Amino acid sequence: MPLWNGNPHALEAQGFGALPDAGSWLRPAGITAGVSVAVPTGKTSNNLSYDPTTRQFNTVRTANVTTVHWRFALEYSTLYLTDRFASGVLPKEDPLRQWIPLIEFAFDSPRGQRTRGTVNPGIPYVSDTWQVAAEPGLPTTHGSTRGVGANLQVLFFLDDFLPSLFGKPILAH
Description:
With 173 residues, the chain is mainly β. It has one domain (5-166). It has helices at residues 158-161, 163-166, and strands at residues 5-6, 9-15, 29-40, 44-51, 56-63, 67-76, 102-110, 116-122, 125-126, 130-139, 149-156. The mean pLDDT is 83.
């Protein structure tokens, strides 16, 4: 039986673009945070595990536990560094300004187990309708992983593909 999770989550973001001139160097900065709870519907699941000594994949029975996933990121949007920046419009003639250096801190807290986490420094590239990002995953806690991992993301913005559905405010004044 496949494992299905109920996964309610909350996300929050805050940019500093409205700071007064004295803090203008912080305007490109932003903070994002999120928390979600993965609630499994089954007590166990079967997963594939690779055994490097035999060079074979084996089925492994794994206990499923409720897990809280929480993370936050510090970002610096280089879009704000150009005088050609207009809210919601990317500068076509200055593609280097579409990079957003960031550092993400991601943690998983399974019920009855130790919290594990990673630090993920990265540099996404943002286009009009998509985004691509690459970041290493560096363990922050002993036993998080056996080494450095990597994340690669390609995102497509739904509000650009389906503007009649996603291109308007949810709560209008």
